[in-house]
Amino acid sequence: MGAVAALPYGDGRVCRTRVDSFFLTSARRYTISFELTKLLSLLLYPLSQSLLLCLLALLALFFHRVRLAALALLLGLGWLYLCSTSVFADYLMGTLEDGYPPKALSVVEPADAIVLLGGAIRGDVHLGTLGDLNQQADRLVHAVSLYKAGKSPLLVVTGGGPSGARTEAQIMYELLQVMGVPAGAIVQEGKSRDTYQNAVYTAQMLKERGIRRILLVTSAFHMRRAEALFAAQGLEVVPAPTDYQRLASPPLMSPWMPSVSDLWQSTYALHELLGYQVYRYQGRL
Fold first, then answer.
1. Treating both helix axes as pointing N-terminal to C-terminal, what angle do 86-97 and 260-281 enclose, rounded to 10 degrees?
2. 39-51 pLDDT, tens per residue?
3. Planar angle of CA 77, 119, 231, nearest 5 degrees
């Protein structure tokens, strides 16, 4: 039986309602909203936009609108090509990373806690014992470096996961121990599904411990949005950016040659630039 609450009627009768059902319904509504948000965000990615423009070109040809078809095809392929070049990808990343230059560990200010944001984990794999890392794995390395340099005695890992799977926080908790961080120094926040919830749930947990000043570890291109969200929760944030995307050495091929890695960088940069504006419009920053 679930927990119940008593709600009195005017004539003294009592209506018993299941609180568990209420929270379950709310959770389902949020899940739908979260999944819908992720689905809509796909429409903002260069590859999705290019495919939609190509689809528009096919529909225009079906209705004998040759000029419209040619224009849609040209825009789709041109946008995909531009986003796949290092020239454009580096420009977009530069607008995000330039405000957060790297710092040597010796000059990083200490704090009460190191907060490591999720996003560096792909999840559990079928034939592996540890969770699989992705392109943002530098976040874990930098967080461990800060901890071992004595910048904070506490390391908070954040990030939830889909139903039935281990959370990002659980997987990072396990990996950090392999990297030499003692289990007693790691705190998990495993309910959040996005950066906004990272900030809300982590801030609540830290304030209960009397912690206000944090070292925030995330990718440099993600830092502007993350720092603003955590600061909005009343925390004193010391940015500790990592995972810089622009290479110091020139590429082997021409910067105008398209590549999958450059398309990935453009996609992440556009996601961050738009995500910041959306959160700003929603009043969350």
1. 40
2. 667 778 999 999 9
3. 110
State the Cα–Cα distance between residues 285 and 276, nearest whole angstrom.
8
Average pLDDT over residues 18-33: 42
Predicted TM-score (pTM) above 0.90:
no
Cα–Cα distances (Å) from 25 to 19, 21, 143, 177, 191, in that order, read 10, 6, 37, 36, 17
List the domains of the chain with CATH numbers.
Answer: 4-33 (no CATH), 46-83 (no CATH), 105-244 (3.40.50.620)
Q: Write out pLDDT tens, residues 62-78.
A: 999 999 999 999 999 99
The DSSP string of 177-208 is HHTT--GGGEEEE---SSHHHHHHHHHHHHHH
CA nearest neighbour of 151 among 185, 101, 112, 179: 112
pLDDT digits (tens, 9 = 90+) for 161-201: 888 889 999 999 999 999 999 999 999 999 999 999 999 99
